[in-house]
Design brief:
Blueprint lengths: L6 H7 L4 H8 L3 H9 L6 H11 L3 H5 L10
Helix pairs in contact: 2-3
Length: 72
């Protein structure tokens, strides 16, 4: 099963640039861009930071659910 991460969609929903998110994650914009395009696997710690930043769940970011609400 091929999963498409929703990190680009969520970023755009929040009207943020890749550079802004990369700065939050303390990584290079080009690396973050590769995460969005699926050219690099996103480490779990980065996915957790993104879920916390966007106040959503990991399940939503990885496409397991359409429910954006976090579990706690």
């Amino acid at each position: 099963m091929l999963m498409r991460l929703k990190i680009r969609d969520v970023r755009e929903d929040h009207d943020l640039t890749q550079q802004q998110v990369a700065e939050y994650l303390m990584c290079d914009q080009s690396l973050y861009s590769k995460y969005e395009r699926g050219e690099r696997d996103v480490p779990l710690n980065i996915m957790i930071k993104l879920a916390q930043f966007y106040k959503t769940s990991l399940d939503y970011l990885v496409g397991f659910t359409e429910n954006k609400r976090p579990y706690r």
